[in-house]
């Protein structure tokens, strides 16, 4: 029972290194299988401890089993989170992301990426069937055709729009949705920059 839990700790150290580097390190299948095999050995040891009436050892071994499970889940969760980050940072394109991760991924992770890509594609077509809005674009920098910067040439006063109420004041600059101010630009109140 002395070294139980050390393999899962090594797995967590590997996961932390991957987080620190922000890189998908090679999937460590052998270490994962060793942790799972250790789980089976612990379960056998628990049966022996039950027969011997060693309740303290049973409690300790059950805690190790739970810790090993948490470590396995955390390892895989961290890897799938990183795959998702890579996917979104490359504009939701399957091919380039597959090229980046394929050498360091397990078959299950590649299947995860494939299913994730299919789900994002389905979301795009279901939610935005006719809209060119790209859900993969940066939130910090909206597409140029979505937002427009305008100077107020002549104050039209307070305008109620879908996004809220704006009191356009002469000489001020605003960033607003193009569709909400096109008519004000056409009428000469606002000037697009």
UniProtKB/TrEMBL annotation:
One of its GO terms (biological process) is DNA strand elongation involved in mitotic DNA replication. Residues 52-125 form the GINS subunit domain. CDD domains: GINS_A_psf1. InterPro entries: GINS_A (IPR021151), GINS_bundle-like_dom_sf (IPR036224), GINS_Psf1 (IPR005339). The keyword Oxidoreductase does not apply. It is found in: Nucleus. SUPFAM superfamilies: GINS helical bundle-like. GO terms for cellular component: GINS complex. The keyword Nucleus applies. Keywords: DNA replication, Nucleus. Belongs to the GINS1/PSF1 family. Required for correct functioning of the GINS complex, a complex that plays an essential role in the initiation of DNA replication, and progression of DNA replication forks. GINS complex seems to bind preferentially to single-stranded DNA. This is DNA replication complex GINS protein PSF1. The lineage of its organism: Eukaryota, Fungi, Dikarya, Basidiomycota, Agaricomycotina.
